Amino acid sequence: MGKRKVFLKTDLNIPQVEHSHDANGSVIVLPEVIPPVHTKVNFGRNATRSRGIDFAFWYGVGIDSITYACQRQTERFLAQQDTGVEASTVASFCKGGLRHFLNFMILRATALSRELTLNAIDRALIDDFLGYLAGLGITTLSQSTHYTGMKCVLHALGRRGIISLVTTGDDATFPRNPFPNSGKSKGETPLPKRQRQAFTSALKQATLPIWNEDAVVTGELLAYALLTVALHTGRNATPLLEMGHDCLRAHPKDNSVFLVLWKRRGHSSSKVALRAESATERRLESTPTIKTNIERLIRRVLAHSETLRAEAPNDIKDCVWLYRVHRGPGVGTVIVLTDSALKLAAKKLVTDYGLVDTDGRPLRINISRLRKTFANRIFELLAGDLMTTAIALGNTPQVAGRNYLAPSADARRNWQFMGEIMVQELLSRTIGATYKTTPMGRCGDPVNGQYAPKREGEACFSFLNCLRCKHYAVTGDDLHRLFSFYFRVFAERTRMNKRRWAQEYAHIPRLIDDYIVAEGLRRGTFKSAVVEAAREQARRDPHPFWSSDVVESLEMFA
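Now predict its structure.
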């Protein structure tokens, strides 16, 4: 009896590129599916103003199969196929890199006077597209952004065999590093101390009207409230903009609540612990002029949005940041705060209050910079700052261990073990006064240390260099933090190129195992049971700071 044929089941609801193969094995898009019945792709609600794109413009101009494949791949991203891509990211792909790529393909088809198919996509074409981007007169960073967006779409098609994908050698479809200097930027810098104080003061004043019973709640006022939440929680823009009306949840600890945010990219929720007001505080403080309570502010916004939910479109009914349009187009309608409206409000705040940076220019305010500013205050938070967050557990824990294990700056290994008791601190009962608690352990000089920025108001959070820094120390109480970092480094392997991980991160677990832990055990400073208990605790329940909910990438600490 002959071998039975196996027929694969296909989910018709999942967007597919309807295709066959010619005698040479090349992909041929079925002509009857071009153009598709629907050429417009809806992004749905997202953090940008872009709600969709119509691919009709690129059909019938000599690149039909390419346009069709790109449209279907865009739809697959939105259907959460192939890889987890947020709707806002898909929107940026389409409005940026993919739009430029399809326009480039039209020019190429016109120049060659023939129809271009998926088989035309190879290294030579990609190189020509890079030249096309360079000729647009835009910055290198913009070119890199557009190229990356286009590459994500085409690479996904290549992984599914829709286009030919060469991954190695000189003929690799995508060049390894076409913009070698574009990735050198460290991104946003935290606000210096004076600028942070000035911004915080301006933000408090700008937000005060929201507490008035007869206040007209505009998008601008809501944006100031959201910036306040961002400043005190360190969260990303998209989860904050998409906060739901049930975002505040009960906390097992008295006078605390959880702020629960949904992360589209990770398909998971994250929790931020906030200090809640007591009943006494609510009675005594009718207007928060001295301190800002984030829980109370969110509840105020929730109370306002509750009055508008019935009038809001279905796709935004559950959103927190609802407001009524008071002037211009769409006056009277209920809409939700967007990323672009947030940016405009931030610029207005800077202008209205005359906020300037250290160079005298208008202060640059965005969510990324506020996130860095929040991270820069980790040391204060760990020392007992009132603002409880997922990366701050409250007051600095009491030091139970007597010995500090500190790798020095040895010229050959740079990991020499000191293992000396800080006698002076013991005698003066000031243990911990010299070494400040950090998410990695202890630091003797977080402001002017080896890898510190050495700038006013900025503490060091170059935690990837802690192990090689002469100011670093770790006690038995710090092993949970250290092993949490240890396992987070391993977790990065699934988030990046394996070769890059081996070059930049693989040494860290070895150093922790072979130098810090091994040497501590050899000297008897650490007990085996304590080490294994801390290791297992970190594996099951890592320190909140090293959670991906708080720190999305270790690159920010490089």
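The first strand starts at residue 19 and ends at 21.
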